[in-house]
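User: quick one, fold this
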Amino acid sequence: MAKRASRPSAEGKVSPTLAYRCPPGTPLIITGFTGPFTLSEKLREGTDAVIHACAGSGVVPSMSIIKAGLRNDEAMRHILLYSNKTVEDTIYLELLREMERDYPDRFEVHFFFTRIKQKPTFSPHIALGRINQAAVEAVLNSENNPVVFVCGPANTPLEKKRARQDPTIQLKPKFMESVLEMIHTAGVDPRHIKHEGWG
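Assistant:
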């Protein structure tokens, strides 16, 4: 049943529909996983590794892929580059650490924290600051022809449209634009890149 919990995003596609056209109590039908952010059989061909670059709640779609992969595909490695403001903001922190312990040869997390000054010690793969070109290339170069999934904040279609219409508007790259640029610079085949963002 639909419940109204907060104000919708003015630039979103789903939240305004749910907030303004779906009264509380309306039954909702959930159809399951759809869309391009999936690890297809075609993407699996010719690789034994998947790199996930995520920020904040962008880890949620990748977690489904990672958990299914670790359970069902013993030949595939998953490496997560995961950016958060603080340790406390890190979704799935304890689960991720547990998964690393359970699958030490097939799952690895590189944590990036942008709003703390003292480096935590709970993992050997922790950096202060944003995901950067050197970190991206180090992970990409350690794997054979990896597939890359990127999920995090991005400039919205409305923001891009406004910038096209008004030359005085200079869009700053958000997580998505920055990381995609790093991945392209590293020479990843565009057919091996999947991305999903939000404003």
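User: anything notable?
Assistant: Residues 39-198 form a domain with the Rossmann fold fold (CATH 3.40.50.80).
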